[in-house]
Amino acid sequence: MDAPDLIARLREGDRRALARSITHVEADTAIGREILAGIYPHTGRAITIGVTGSAGVGKSTMVAALAREQRRRGRTVGIVAVDPSSPFSNGAILGDRIRMQSLTSDGGVFMRSMASRGNLGGLSEMATGVVDLMDAAGFDVIILETVGAGQDEVEVATATSTTVLVTTPAGGDEIQSMKAGLMEIAQVMVVNKSDIAGADTAVMQLKALLAIAGPRSWEPPILKVVARDDQGLDALVDAIDRHQTHVRESEHAEAERRALVQSQIVALARASIERHTLATAREQGVLAGLVEEVAARTRDPRDAAEALVEAVRLHWGREAASR
Amino acid sequence: MTTQERAIRVLIAKPGLDGHDRGAKVVARALRDAGMEVIYTGIRQTPQMIAEAALQEDVDVVGLSILSGAHLELFPRVVEELKSRGVEDVLLFAGGIIPQDDIPRVNEIGFKGVFGPGTNTNDIIEFVRNNAPQRV
Fold first, then answer.
1. Could you tell me if A275 lies within 8 Å of chain B, comparing CB atoms?
2. What is the pLDDT of residues A223-267, one digit of tens each?
3. ipTM above 0.85?
4. Which of B2, B3, B14 to mutate to test the interface with A (most CBs of A within 10 A)?
5. What is the pTM of this model?
6. Per the CB < 8 Å rule, is B136 touching A27?
């Protein structure tokens, strides 16, 4: 199937065409790019939700509970679940479907597992693309679950319009350690596993942290949830809906949307620059030589990085001149 | 432009009612360590659930593990469910307790490889690498 074919079929809600299109986007093929360009005008209709938080806080369980609540409200749901790749083999075990059992035979739900592909980058590129595909396929709500750490997370947040940060009562120290970054991208905060001791303390800590962050146009609500038992999900989905309305209707809405689109472009550009630069550096054998010099301590890594970029720039310059 | 070799995507599932998934997990892990992306669905999957997961995940390969003896009932139904969804270009293989006498029939149903107890995981990795269809 070629791109126009896939676009037409996925827009009619053909699940197989959607699945294959995602494969193309993940593999970054020419067809994948053509599909993304073709569907973009038809995106922007879905409620897009990112769910993030540290390992073990119950993100997958939260996503399943969120999806069930959205289904109760009659909305169709697309789910993208990202699990880490092994940095050694690049392989991955993607186990999120185990926690989504209750949804696997529901025709109103489509779930796709993705591997983070480790430090090879491009996670935000892929995630943004897959969310767009599901949007164009007509899903009312799209939930993106991510691995929960680092710079990638902040970039992935640009793929969705409401980011839900999941923490637990046991995570007091962990809340302290993530003041920056994740705290700033969250529009809704959830203390999951609220049936165990310390939930109120965790809520208070989050409140205190938000107070430090200062006033802004949207005040992130902090909610107590027990995702495993579907407790507090109604209030969570209400809060997400309120944020979506805020995004679409507040006086700052247009400015915020532009800011989001700008960070999306910047994130994609950064990924593209990184990919092209490193590809050229490898092709030209620049990297290997620098590695040797730094390993022998005859050059420091910063200087080597500058030299790499300079060598790539020169190579591109020569290429452009010869055209 | 593709910047890296695309990882082979494999669905590992356990159809039917037996809950013994050690073998499935060992295979899942071996394939992961061989650089593949393995979607593991857990135990007690119906043929519909397996086929729907294979479709949504657009996997290249489906591996089923079964120890209950219901392979001749369940495997054809998995193949049927895949076909009814238009998923016909996946490599199928099976593992678990499948009597020698049943293997020709299991092959005929569409399972190109059958791996019983004692199989070296390297043989499974090699089988998957050599037979997985080219996707995109």
1. yes
2. 999 999 999 999 999 999 999 998 888 777 788 778 878 888 887
3. yes
4. B3
5. 0.87
6. yes
